[in-house]
Design brief:
The protein is mainly alpha-helical and about 325 residues long. It has one domain (about 5-300). The chain contains 12 helices and no strands. Helix 5 packs across helix 6 and helix 6 packs antiparallel against helix 12 (about 260-280). The longest helix is centred in the N-terminal third of the chain and has 27 residues, at about 5-30. It is globular, with a radius of gyration of 19 Å. The two termini are about 25 Å apart.
């Protein structure tokens, strides 16, 4: 079996686990507030992430070198996690994924002012087509847009921004700073809301919350192995397999139907995203390849980033050492 095939399989497994993670969020969202779900998923995730961070042997403190950017990313990460969890709770799974898949398109656009990235007309056109696909999914003017739709769009925007901040400062900031600050912020802010939204947790639901954190860890580990095994240009498109799992889980577990606009819009968004990945993989006119370098899973506050756990010679579209 070739390295590319092994990496693709590992990535497919990772995103299947992430999709299962999102099913549990949707299940819990029928009873509990997103504030409560995020709070406990982060709480259960702390011990796991702490163990992972023990490998960081650098002698330094937790004071960021770029406090402004770290604060901005922390706020964006908190908003992303909350909005994504809320969207999964109230929207059909396939529709939520379709909107969140706009994040790579937004990363491409935001990389122009934030990273000085050069985006040629081909990638620019792909972004426009992909964003048109989002409009196909949302159908503004013909369907009633809800807070869930707004939350998914906000999550896509803030998630893209948070990813690019890491691309901007990731080589100079310690990974522990970039990982722990958003988790602590989630814990504090969501905890402050607990007196107003807390609902006693049944035993099976407490187990589900712990499983959410565990699934995020296992999926992230599989994704780390995938990026260690195969080039990023091979692994990155596998994220779109989540739409298949979302469709299956939605129909089987939540009696969600698949509408034609969701199917058509998702196809447009996915095709645009894959095209952008392939263009970045060719390296033509792109100095930072922001989408390929963004090795994280959007909207999972209890999981860590992939890049800090890659080997120094981790494979990429053009070489090693990527901060994200």
């Amino acid at each position: 079996m070739s390295a590319s095939l092994r990496g693709s399989i590992l990535a497919l497994v990772a995103f299947a686990i992430f999709a299962t993670h999102d099913v549990l969020i949707k299940y819990l969202g029928g009873t509990y507030s997103p504030f409560q779900i995020v709070f406990f998923s982060v709480l259960f995730g702390f011990p796991i992430v702490t163990i992972l961070l023990l490998r960081d042997a650098k002698e330094a403190n937790l004071i960021p070198r770029h406090p402004g950017w770290v604060a901005a990313r922390t706020l964006a990460s908190v908003v992303t996690g909350f909005c994504a969890f809320y969207a999964f709770s109230v929207l059909p799974l396939a529709q939520t994924y379709a909107i969140l898949f706009a994040a790579p398109l937004l990363i491409t656009l935001l990389a122009i002012p934030m990273l000085g990235e050069t985006v040629g007309w081909r990638r620019g056109l792909a972004v426009m087509v992909g964003l048109a696909g989002v409009l196909v999914v949302l159908q503004p003017g013909t369907t009633d847009l809800s807070l869930g739709h707004a939350a998914a769009m906000v999550a896509a925007c803030t998630g893209a921004f948070a990813s690019l901040v890491v691309r901007k400062i990731g080589r100079e900031e310690r990974s522990v700073v970039l990982i722990l600050y958003p988790m602590v912020a989630n814990f504090v802010l969501m905890g402050a809301a607990m007196p107003f939204v807390y609902v006693p947790i049944a035993g099976v639901d407490a187990l589900a919350l712990a499983v959410i954190a565990a699934l995020a860890l296992v999926a992230t580990f599989c994704l780390i192995l995938a990026y260690r095994t195969a080039p990023a240009v091979t692994v990155a498109p596998m994220q779109y397999s989540q739409i298949l799992w979302a469709s299956l889980f939605g129909v089987v577990l939540f009696d969600e139907g698949l509408t034609l606009p969701t199917l058509v819009g998702s196809g447009i968004i996915i095709a645009s995203g894959i095209y952008i990945v392939l263009r970045e993989g060719k390296g033509g006119g792109s100095s930072t390849t922001p989408v390929l370098r963004t090795r994280m899973r959007l909207g999972t506050p209890s999981s860590t980033r992939v890049a800090p756990f890659l080997d120094p010679d981790a494979r990429g579209p053009r070489g090693p050492s990527n901060p994200e």
